[in-house]
Write a structure and sequence with these properties.
With about 375 residues, this protein is of the alpha+beta class. It has two domains: about 35-175, no CATH class; about 180-365, no CATH class. Helices cover about 30% and strands about 20% of the residues. It is built from nine helices and 15 strands. The strands form four sheets. Strands 10-9-15-14-13-12-5-11 form an eight-stranded antiparallel β-sheet, with no helix packed on it. The chain has a three-stranded antiparallel β-sheet with strand order 6-7-8. Strands 1-2 form a two-stranded antiparallel ribbon. It is globular. It comes from Peptacetobacter hiranonis (strain DSM 13275 / JCM 10541 / KCTC 15199 / TO-931).
Length: about 375
């Protein structure tokens, strides 16, 4: 059956009358960004009332769950929601506890020290990670060196749970930041700026494994004042084989601040699923970098917007790779949702960076 309708906003062929998913998402973000102070308070109270009536049993499947994500993408202070979540022992999503106050933190610490449930402990660890203060860090460190019985039923140590909040700690309990406290997004524009920061261009080289043309999937102009937080006074280029990245464990490249990059050895696949038309569709995107800074969770609750910095929208679990040169944890840099730049692909490409070694690592997740 053909796609007999056109999106009323952008003209994309779709199988129903109305707006395509991207235009619906864009429209929804616009509505959220236009909420008044009074409307925001109303939404917060609606979420709190839902938590009080449902507890932790059904909140995930409610409209209020989505409303909470909307508030976070607006950068709204949700400490009152954290208090309600704590009172009714709701621990998912862990972002409910982002920067929660000391009283909530102390209650969570009391609970994790007293619990015998590995399920509860796992959830509370993520919540403490989102609070991200010194006492939370010290608690996670203490639980690593002096584990409780429930640790036997967890797959990883508490320092890995800390990563859910965008940080971790080492054996000496030193704090290690794993994401950036600034965020910018890519938005639909008239034409992407290949003299600045942009997504996707052809490299004019072929993958030795599958023969697909290699691409510079993300180029960041570190000289742009918006990216002072990266501490890179030059061009950062992330390069990959777009065909192999879907089925490989990931790909890395070394970059120099003059914009060049060298793709490091990776395991590829033999068959190339990319046609020239597909590649052209990818590099012809018209996404442009936002002029204004976005809230840190702007891209964390949906898959409709590509972001640099802030928190990622992990399809599966959070994942911070080790630098292939120095072995240290890399920092999350950016995410690109494939279906925002091409029609046939799914999932998300995550891009991480080691600024010391000037190494980029990329990997793919999807449902």
């Amino acid at each position: 059956m053909g796609l007999k309708y056109k999106c009323k906003e952008c003209g994309t062929s779709i199988g129903f009358e109305g707006l395509c998913w991207q235009c619906r998402a864009k429209q929804h973000r616009k509505e959220v960004n236009n909420w008044s102070v009074e409307e925001i308070e109303e939404k917060k109270n609606q979420i709190i009332n839902s938590i009080k009536s449902l507890g932790d049993e059904k909140f995930y499947s409610t409209d209020e769950f989505d409303l909470f994500g909307d508030l976070m993408t607006r950068g709204i202070d949700c400490k009152e929601i954290a208090k309600a979540a704590c009172e009714y022992e709701l621990y998912y999503p862990s972002a409910l506890y982002y920067k929660a106050d000391e009283k909530v933190r102390d209650i969570l610490i009391e609970r994790i020290m007293a619990t015998e449930s590995s399920d509860d402990a796992s959830c509370i660890l993520g919540c403490l990670a989102m609070i991200e203060d010194e006492k939370s860090k010290n608690t996670l460190h203490e639980l690593k060196i002096n584990p409780k019985p429930w640790r036997r039923n967890l797959y990883v140590d508490t320092n890995v749970y800390a990563e859910e909040g965008g940080w971790t700690f080492n054996e000496e309990n030193e704090y290690i930041k794993l994401n950036y406290d600034r965020c910018f997004s890519f938005e639909p524009g008239d034409k992407k700026d290949e003299n600045g920061t942009f997504i996707a261009r052809k490299r004019g080289e072929k993958c030795k494994h599958c023969g697909c043309e290699l691409v510079d999937i993300l180029v960041i102009d570190g000289r742009d004042k918006r990216f002072d937080f990266l501490g890179m006074d030059g061009i950062i280029t992330a390069s990959c084989c777009p065909n192999c990245i879907f089925l490989s464990e990931g790909q890395s490249n070394k970059f120099t601040l003059d914009g060049k990059s060298e793709i490091l050895e990776y395991e590829g696949i033999e068959e190339n699923y990319y046609t020239e038309e597909m590649l052209e569709d990818m590099v012809s995107n018209k996404l442009v970098l936002s002029e204004i800074e976005r809230p840190l969770f702007y891209g964390a609750f949906n898959c409709d917007v590509n972001t640099i910095g802030g928190f990622a929208s992990w399809v599966q679990d959070w994942e911070y790779r080790e630098c292939p040169e120095c072995g240290k944890k890399m920092r999350y840099l950016a995410q690109i949702h494939w279906d925002t730049i091409e029609d046939f692909a799914e999932g998300t490409l995550y891009i991480e960076i080691c600024t010391d070694c000037k190494v980029i690592t990329m990997f793919h997740q999807q449902t």
